[in-house]
Amino acid sequence: MLEALFARQVEELFARPQDRWSPPVRTAPDQGRDGTEAFVLAEVRSSVAESSAFLREHEAPRIGPLALEQLHEDVRTLANDYLRRPLLAVFRDALRLRGDVLRLLDERQRHSDSMELYQVAGHLSAMLSYSCFDLGHPDAASTHARAAWACAEQCDSGQLRAYIRWAQSNIAYWHGRYSDAIALAQSGQRFAGTGTSMLRLTSQEARVHAARNDATEVERALSLARNCDMDAQDDPSGVFSFVPGKFLYYSSETLLKVGGEGSAQRAVAAAEDSLAYFHGHADRSCPEFLAAARLDAASAHLALHDVDGAMVHLDEIFRIPAGHRTTPIRKRMDGMVSLLAGAGDKRAAVVAAELRQISERTASGGA
Hints:
Layout: H1 2-14, H2 39-58, H3 65-81, H4 87-106, H5 111-134, H6 138-155, H7 158-174, H8 178-189, H9 196-211, H10 215-226, H11 244-258, H12 261-280, H13 287-303, H14 307-317, H15 327-341, H16 346-363
Helix pairs in contact: 2-3, 3-5, 4-5, 5-6, 5-7, 6-7, 7-8, 7-9, 8-9, 9-10, 9-11, 10-11, 11-12, 11-13, 12-13, 13-14, 13-15, 15-16
């Protein structure tokens, strides 16, 4: 009875089409987020998708160990692809794969296999939430986050719960719902380990407190973050990871909001350290991370009335391909426009106008 009830709830929550499974679709090769065509990589990716689908069908109706292993590998691949491939392409692949996983959950599976399938579906739903938010659809992101939470409850995954609470807090933060953002970040900390999952949530909490001008709580949350084991990567890779470089640019953004010359100087140092980290760990970086760090560094330089220092970083911002201008990057760019407009400098005024045009074109779907 309970299983049937939950199955109906999941069906309503996911709102999936009737015929969810379809073989991998061959489309034009992805244009990488750096604008590079990757014909060979596209063919390899298509061949992997076909083999993965074969394993799921071969072991149907009950899924077997080979298909489960491949599903986890598919999630890892998509999580890493998220940092490099076009967002919409990754979203479509994640949605298609989640449809296959939900179909498998409809069939009678062994309990242990169902728990693994819920974990896979939860990570895919979380990825859909993140991509919808980055693409500028926060309501859809919230729905996918709730779907991910339902899966996390079924498979009892603390790591997944912690990630989802961060994603929900992030949505609330960027839309000015600071009380909700703090409550969600603190809720997630109950499920986090002592490594990067906790680092993510305490860093998130710190910047929300900064947005509320609560300097005491900022320092408390930053202190908790610094005490995390940054070498303990207790999150999966790719989009699910929270590397020290991200903590550093979160810190820069946080300190800048606190205000004051001392905080601005610390913000510059944190942003510069973030850039140094990503340049030294290219495998953990992507243009979005570099753009966030550069925009935070430029903002901190402007807070110190150092227009020349800001321009060094803003020159790089104009080279960001349209596919990398996610919602958080656009919001940072909008904040930068206001800072530049108040700088009282002709160069700053010109750059502000250019950034405003870029942000408006990106928001409207242009390049």
